[in-house]
Fold this protein.
Amino acid sequence: MKNSRAIAATIINDVCYAKKSLTDVFNKRLSNNSDAAFIKSLCFGSLRFYFQLQDVLGQLLNKPLKTKDKDIECLIIVGLYQLLHTDTPPYAAINETVNGAKQLKKTWAQSLINKILRLANQKVSYNLESVESQYAHPLWLVNKIKAAWPEHWKSILAANNKQPPLYLRINKTLITKDDYVALLSKENIQYQIIENLPFALEIKDPISVEKLPGFSAGFFSVQDITGQKVIEYLDLEKDQSVLDACCAPGSKTTHILESQPNIMALFGIDISDKRLEKVKANIHRLNLSVKNVNIKASDITELHNWWDEKCFDRILIDAPCSASGVIRRHPDIKILREESDIASLAKIQLEIL
């Protein structure tokens, strides 16, 4: 499949109707795709405004599409996103989205997609009365955020719908921040220094991470600045034994090893064997020593499976949660998370603590 819109539609279908994680689907479908960055931007945007775009689609369709044609529905969502939320020329957005139906082997849908997108392009405004449409969030989550932050809920929802900034954590074991900044300047890549975080930088213009200097050499990791602050609170010393519970995908694990490369012992535990492969890959890319590192797949609450009954000096718990705080970076959370998940996640958190 070569049509980027069709690939994006397939991915969105996997998320919305097969309930798969966006990250997992990206890893499966885009591993060797040269157009991956563009496809990801289509998926992120379409899912970011999914509830709104669904409402618009409902107003333009005479009747809902059949269950077997949800891929076509997702393809139209991709087209609507381009028309309503990007600077893509309408002719390109419409034509390429229409052509996507051929890639999905549903040529019958081409005329329908063409009609819907041309109507969308002509219409000045839509009747977006529902809370879900207005704020592009599921109603239950809007109500939760509104109850928790009655004075700021609108600005929080608006922030969730923005493209997230790209923050880097410079790997101090391989390069200084000054030297890395020099590499960025040489490539004419705009950046900003983050105050009070000695190894943090913000990249100002959107760019694929792999195209940044030194990615494969391990010069940096991508990590939000809130995450970068966490390791400071551990107050690490090299003669300590540290437990990183629920450690995948490894941003904090690697940060620990960068902060104290000769740490006496680091135990990284996660319930997912597959996600632990990402931890190991990150450690390898960053050229960090695994001499005193023990990574194991286990339920952290089943102590008999992994604990040798020796006490730890520090324990870091990044417990499973609603992930509502990282919706900007993971918009599929709006679709995948259910209100009923909150109580079960809270129970898991308490068990881990």
Observations:
- Residues 147 and 153 are 8 Å apart (CA to CA).
